[in-house]
C-alpha cells in the first residue's frame, strides 16, 4: 500500500511541476493514529520553490491524487501547516493481515537491498583474555545487523577477527611461565582454563606497567617486549607450545559462548595471519614507486613507519613500530585487503567495534582509500557505545572485568527466582532461564541507538511487563497459548487458513491498532537494515506487543459463536509470527512456555 500511495503521489505532483522520484517522497506513519495511517510533507517541501502556500499546494495535490488514487484509500485530509494524511480502508488492512498469514515465516522480507554480498565483522575477542561485556555488546549488535541484512535478501558472511597475537599475549605468557605448576590439566573445565589465562594477563599487565605490580618487577617490561617478538616470529618451541595451548583454550571457550548466544561465524581471519600481509603492504607503500600518487602513503619516522593523518584533518598513527613489527593498524590493512581478495564480489563490508575506535577507523579508512579506493568506499565502520553499571566502565587491565558469562549468570539467577513457582521440569526451567536471560540482555543492548552508552538495570531487564525482552517473549508465548486453544476448539487452525472465507461479512468492519502495526513490519525491518539500526525493530515490537495485549484484553478471540472468530485467530497467528520474525532479527528466541 505504501508503494501504491508513493507512485500515485509522484504522478499527482508532476502535474504541478514537481519533478520527483518515488524514493524522494517521504511517507511516514503519524504518531497519532487519529491523523491517519500515512502522512507526507510533500507540499511543505516544495511550496517555497513553487511560490505557493503549503496548504494550497496540498489541496491541489489531493485533487490530482484522487483522480488516480488506489482503491484502498478511504480518505485524504490536510493537517497542520500542510501535511497530507491518508486513511486506509479498514477491510483493506484486514485483507493485508490475511496476506501476511499466507507468507508465514517469510512475512516482512523485502528484497530491496542494493548490496547483494555483505561482509559483517564483529565481536573480535582476544585470545588469553576474558570475553567481556564489550564483546557481548558487539556480538549482539553484529548478529542483529547480520540478520537484518539477510532479511533484506543479501548474502551475508559473518567474519570474526580474533586477536591471537600482540603484547597482551606476551604479558599472559610471561606470567604463565611463572605459574607452570598451576596450569590446569587437560580434563579441567574450559572455564577454569580461561579463568587461569585471564589471571595471567592481569599479572603480566601489572608487571609490565610497573605501578601496582603483584610480583617483583625486575626487568619485566624488557622481558615481555622481547617475548612479544619471539611469539611473533615463532622462534622458541617452548613458547610456541604455551601459545598454541592458550589460544586453543580461548577459541574453544569462545565457540561455546557463540553457540549460547545464537551466533555462528562463517569465517575466521586471525590477527596472526594478517600481520605478515599488512607488514608487506605497508612496507611497500612507504617506498617510492609503489603507488601512482606522487606522495607515499606511509612515511618513515624515528625508525617506525607512520601514516601522517594531519594533512587530512586526522592524526598520525604508527603502522610499523621501531622494532619492525606491524602494529594493529598494519594488521587491519592486511585484514581488509584479505577480505576483498577472498570475497571479490563484496558490495559492502561492515565492521562493528566499540566507538572508542571511531577516530582510529577514520585514519585507517583514509589510509585504505589511498591504497585501494574500492575497499575504502565499500567499507563502513559502526561504533557502538559502552555497557555500564553503577561502578562505571569495566576494565580487563585491573582484573575487575565483567565477563559475558558473569552477566548472563547473574541475570539467569534472577530469572530462575522469578519462574521458580511455575510448573516446569528442572531441564525446562534451566533452558527457559537461559533463553529469557539472553533475550533480556540483548534487548537492553538493542533497544537504544547503536552508538549510545547503556546503563544496565538488572531488575528492569527481566520484567515480564513493560519495556523489556521478556515482555516481548511473553507476549508471543501468550499468543501461542491462544492459538493452541483455538486449535483444540477447531477454530481457524493453521491448516484451515487457506480455506478461510475472505468475504466482507467475515472481516471486521473496523480494525484495531494491532492490524495497522502488523502491516508496518516490512517497512520497519527495511528501515532498520538501511540505517543499520536494530533499535527500530526493538521499539516497534514493544508497541506491537502492547497493541496485542490491549486487543486480547478487549476481544474474545476464541468463540465458536462469533463468525469473526476465525479472523481473530488468524490475526493472533500473524501477530505471533511477526513477533517471532522481529525477535529473530534481534537474535532473541521465543520459548514455547513462560
Walk me through the structure.
It is a single chain. By secondary structure, the chain is an alpha/beta fold. Among the domains are: 87 residues, Arginyl tRNA synthetase N-terminal domain (Gyrase A, domain 2); 98 residues, no CATH class; 162 residues, Isoleucyl-tRNA Synthetase, Domain 1 (Orthogonal Bundle), CATH 1.10.730.10. 52% of the residues lie in helices and 10% in strands. It contains 20 helices and 14 strands. Strands 7-6-5-11-12 form a 5-stranded parallel beta sheet, with helices on both faces. β3 and β4 form a beta hairpin. The longest helix is centred in the middle third of the chain and has 25 residues. It is flat and about 85 Å long. About 1% of the residues have low confidence.
How many DSSP H or I helices? Answer: 20
Assembly category: single chain
Biggest sheet, strands in spatial order? 7-6-5-11-12
Q: Detail the poorly predicted runs.
A: 493-500
Q: Quote the beta fraction.
A: 5-15%
What do we call the CATH homologous superfamily of one domain?
Answer: Isoleucyl-tRNA Synthetase, Domain 1
Radius of gyration: 29 Å
Amino acid at each position: 500500500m505504501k508503494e501504491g500511495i508513493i507512485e500515485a503521489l509522484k504522478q499527482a505532483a508532476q502535474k504541478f511541476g514537481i519533478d520527483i522520484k518515488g524514493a524522494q517522497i517521504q511517507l511516514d506513519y503519524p504518531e497519532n493514529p487519529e491523523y491517519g495511517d500515512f502522512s507526507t510533507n510533500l507540499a511543505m517541501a516544495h511550496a517555497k520553490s513553487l511560490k505557493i502556500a503549503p496548504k494550497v499546494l496540498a489541496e491541489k495535490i489531493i485533487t490530482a491524487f484522487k483522480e488516480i488514487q488506489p482503491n484502498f484509500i478511504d480518505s485524504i485530509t490536510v493537517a497542520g501547516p500542510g501535511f497530507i494524511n491518508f486513511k486506509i480502508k479498514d477491510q483493506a488492512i484486514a485483507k493485508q493481515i490475511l496476506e501476511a498469514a499466507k507468507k508465514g515465516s517469510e512475512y516482512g522480507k523485502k528484497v530491496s537491498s542494493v548490496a547483494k554480498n555483505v561482509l559483517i565483522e564483529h565481536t573480535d575477542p582476544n585470545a588469553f583474555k576474558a570475553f567481556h561485556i564489550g564483546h557481548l555488546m558487539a556480538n549482539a549488535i553484529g548478529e542483529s545487523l547480520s540478520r537484518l541484512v539477510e532479511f533484506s535478501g543479501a548474502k551475508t558472511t559473518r567474519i570474526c577477527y580474533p586477536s591471537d597475537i600482540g603484547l597482551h599475549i606476551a604479558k599472559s605468557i610471561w606470567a604463565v611461565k611463572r605459574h607452570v605448576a598451576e596450569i590446569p590439566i587437560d580434563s579441567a573445565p574450559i572455564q577454569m582454563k580461561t579463568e587461569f589465562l585471564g589471571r595471567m594477563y592481569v599479572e603480566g599487565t601489572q608487571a609490565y606497567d610497573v605501578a601496582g605490580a603483584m610480583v617483583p618487577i625486575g626487568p619485566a617490561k624488557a622481558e615481555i617486549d622481547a617475548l612479544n617478538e619471539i611469539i611473533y616470529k615463532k622462534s622458541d618451541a617452548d613458547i610456541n607450545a604455551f601459545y598454541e595451548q592458550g589460544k586453543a583454550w580461548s577459541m574453544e571457550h569462545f565457540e561455546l559462548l557463540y553457540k549460547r548466544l545464537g551466533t555462528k561465524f562463517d569465517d575466521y581471519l586471525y590477527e596472526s595471519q594478517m600481520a605478515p600481509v599488512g607488514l608487506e603492504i605497508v612496507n611497500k607503500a612507504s617506498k617510492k614507486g609503489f603507488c601512482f600518487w606522487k606522495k607515499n602513503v606511509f612515511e618513515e619516522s624515528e625508525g617506525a613507519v607512520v601514516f601522517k593523518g594531519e594533512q587530512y584533518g586526522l592524526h598520525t598513527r604508527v603502522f610499523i613500530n621501531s622494532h619492525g613489527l606491524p602494529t594493529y593498524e598494519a594488521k587491519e590493512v592486511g585484514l581488509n585487503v584479505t577480505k576483498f581478495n577472498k570475497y571479490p564480489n563484496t558490495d559492502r563490508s561492515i565492521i562493528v567495534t566499540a566507538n572508542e575506535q571511531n577516530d582510529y577507523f577514520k585514519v585507517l579508512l583514509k589510509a585504505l582509500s589511498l591504497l585501494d579506493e574500492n575497499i575504502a568506499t565499500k567499507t563502513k565502520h559502526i561504533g557502538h557505545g559502552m555497557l555500564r553499571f553503577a561502578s562505571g566502565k569495566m576494565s580487563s587491565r585491573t582484573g575487575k572485568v565483567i565477563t559475558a558469562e558473569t552477566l548472563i549468570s547473574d541475570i539467569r539467577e534472577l530469572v530462575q527466582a522469578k519462574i521458580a513457582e511455575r510448573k516446569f521440569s528442572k531441564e525446562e526451567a534451566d533452558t527457559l532461564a537461559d533463553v529469557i536471560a539472553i533475550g533480556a540482555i540483548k534487548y537492553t543492548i538493542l533497544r537504544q541507538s547503536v552508538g549510545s552508552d547503556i546503563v544496565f538495570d538488572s531488575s528492569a531487564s527481566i520484567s515480564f511487563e513493560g519495556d523489556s525482552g521478556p515482555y516481548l517473549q511473553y507476549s508471543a508465548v501468550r499468543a501461542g497459548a491462544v492459538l493452541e486453544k483455538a486449535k483444540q476448539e477447531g477454530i481457524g487452525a493453521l491448516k484451515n487458513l487457506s480455506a478461510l472465507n475472505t468475504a466482507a461479512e467475515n472481516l471486521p468492519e473496523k480494525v484495531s491498532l494491532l492490524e495497522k502495526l502488523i502491516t508496518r513490519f516490512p517497512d520497519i525491518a527495511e528501515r532498520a537494515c538501511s540505517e543499520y539500526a536494530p533499535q527500530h525493530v526493538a521499539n516497534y515490537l514493544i508497541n506491537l506487543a502492547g497493541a496485542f495485549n490491549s486487543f486480547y484484553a478487549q476481544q474474545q478471540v476464541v468463540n465458536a459463536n462469533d463468525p469473526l472468530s476465525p479472523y481473530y485467530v488468524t490475526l493472533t497467528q500473524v501477530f505471533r509470527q511477526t513477533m517471532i520474525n522481529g525477535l529473530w532479527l534481534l537474535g532473541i528466541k521465543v520459548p514455547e512456555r513462560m
